[in-house]
Amino acid sequence: MSKICIVFDRLRTEEKMLQKEASELGHDAIMIDAKITQVNTDSKKDDYDFGDIVLERCVSYFRGLHFTASLEFMDIPVLNKFEVAHICGNKMFMTLLLKKNNIPTPKTYFSFSSESAAENLEKVGYPLVIKPVIGSWGRGVMPIKDKDAMDAICEIRNITDSPHDRIYYLQELIKRPPRDIRVITIGDDPIAAMYRKSSGGFKTNIALGADPELCEITKEIEDMAAKASKAMGGGILGIDMMEDDKRGLVVHEVNNTVEFKGLARVTQRNIPKEMVEFALNHIRK
Could you report the average pLDDT of every consecutive run of 10 residues in the chain (285 residues)? Predict the structure, then answer.
């Protein structure tokens, strides 16, 4: 019998599903809250009970990333690895890596001040989509349709003064159906996919009320998802695609601690079970 550890900072449906499937497979499942765990530079693997492998499932990107670094410091196997989490958690790093690996992705413009971003947008033309380089659930993602909108965003960002607000990530607005595609890959293998249909607005996030609908994994989706997973470094990932009316599929995001309760409602595949099995097989190699 193996022991799997699920690290969280908010106990969601997904983490409970993973715990249940691990138990039903006959394995111990340890649940550890990252918020109350302490590590220091003398910490050793034997000081804790993190089981045979850790699934890092923190909602907070920064908390999960730094927790993963602590685990790897103690030579504790963890999925996903630090480098994968680091790249996927920053949209700029992720987009550059997709492009470098010849994976179709929306054209994206990077600026490093509000003045430069506004100048670039005037040069490129409206509309573009602005996204925070770090963030999830569609927060801070919005179309910029004119100069007034851009001026307002720059004003807000200059007031908030977050370090990442100095990085402007502006992306072409893809002409697409009112949906996108979420593919879950486990070990570079696309196991299930869904359409996330807009509930009437611009965004298609399940967390914001978008409706999940099963999507057949075509050869094109399979190949693109596998290629995107390999480019990021593999593990357990959520690959998000849009259907461009001219270019076909483009990958616009890759997610590290991927949520799957929406997809689990519409697919026949047992996603949490396959995640647990992959994690345990990972340490047996």
Answer: 94 97 96 98 97 97 98 98 98 98 98 95 95 89 94 91 91 93 97 87 58 93 98 98 96 96 94 97 81
- Rounded CA separation 68/60 (Å): 12
| Local structure of 100: helix, strand or coil | helix
| Residue written as token pair 């991927």 | 258
Q: Select from 203, 215, 235 the least CA-distant residue to 130.
A: 203
The rounded distance, in Å, linking the Cα atoms of 14 and 213 is 18
Distance CA 285, CA 282 (A): 6
pLDDT at 231: 98
Long-range contacts of 155-159 (CB under 8 A, 24+ apart): 157/114, 158/114
Structural domains of the chain ordered from first start: 3-79 (3.40.50.20), 88-104+175-281 (3.30.470.20), 108-172 (3.30.1490.20)
Return the ∠ at Cα 163 (arms to 161 and 165), rounded to 5°: 65
Is the torsion defined by CA of 134, 138, 143, 147 positive or negative? negative
> Is the peptide bond between 77 and the residue preceding it cis, with omega within 30 degrees of 0?
no
Number of H helices, E strands in the chain: 9, 13
